[in-house]
Write a structure and sequence with these properties.
2 domains; two-stranded antiparallel sheet; 9 helices; 47% helix
Length: 217
């Protein structure tokens, strides 16, 4: 649950205040602990669930999608700060479906809730603007957008690396053959190398034997 309420641990603006809280978690993949999209947008999305006739096409669909994805993102057991709050969640029903274990991390479903929640939050803001046109919406939205931009700018300190491919890939790109490229080492133990292999593929444009590209060699 805290992944919805707390900024990611790598955000420099919040890293120090949240260090003690995040010390209790095992992080895994960063994207699986980064469902936070702001307390205000989250509150707006929740309020929007109880508003009638939002100015958005198919608002009923977005409400259902948001609630469903939000509940599923908590996994089979709802925990708060490692303490069990609810021992049975709807994700247990999802686990009964064949192939459901391939998802592995329930929090990934939260990305769908982020999409629906963002749309609901914006629809609610639009509704308020239509009903309260005399409010100072322009400075409020400009100030809010500026704060959001500052926060997003430092959200993830992605490392910067040399992107130029090694000379060997120039030769592969110039080869007119129809074969596929096998980059070694590869596999689960060499995920960083596999990521670079996929990046270099955009240079030589040949099919890959290894990697995660969604096509066969």
């Amino acid at each position: 649950m805290l992944s919805w309420l707390l900024p990611p641990r790598h955000n420099p603006l919040w890293q120090a205040p949240l260090a003690a809280t995040y010390a209790e978690f095992t992080e895994g993949y960063l994207v699986e602990t980064a469902l936070f999209f702001g307390l205000v947008p989250l509150a707006l999305a929740i309020v929007a669930l109880f508003r009638r006739r939002l100015p958005v096409s198919g608002d009923g669909f977005w409400r259902i999608l948001f609630v469903t994805a939000l509940l599923l993102s908590f996994g089979p057991v709802l925990r708060l700060n490692l303490e069990t709050v609810v021992n049975w969640m709807p994700y247990r029903l999802f686990m009964l479906l064949p192939g459901s274990f391939a998802f592995r991390a329930p929090a990934r479903i939260g990305l769908t809730a982020l999409l629906a929640g963002t749309l609901l939050a914006l629809a609610l803001v639009k509704q308020l603007m239509m009903r309260r046109p005399h409010w100072a919406w322009r400075p409020l939205l400009v100030a809010g957008s500026a704060l959001l931009l500052v926060n997003m700018t430092v959200e993830f300190p992605w490392p910067v690396n040399q992107a130029a491919p090694p000379p060997a890939y120039d030769a592969i790109a110039a080869d007119g053959g129809q074969g596929a490229v096998l980059d070694l080492p590869a596999g689960e133990m060499f995920q960083d190398r596999t990521s670079w292999a996929m990046a270099y593929q955009t240079w030589h444009n040949k099919p890959l034997v290894s990697g995660y590209l969604g096509r066969r060699p």
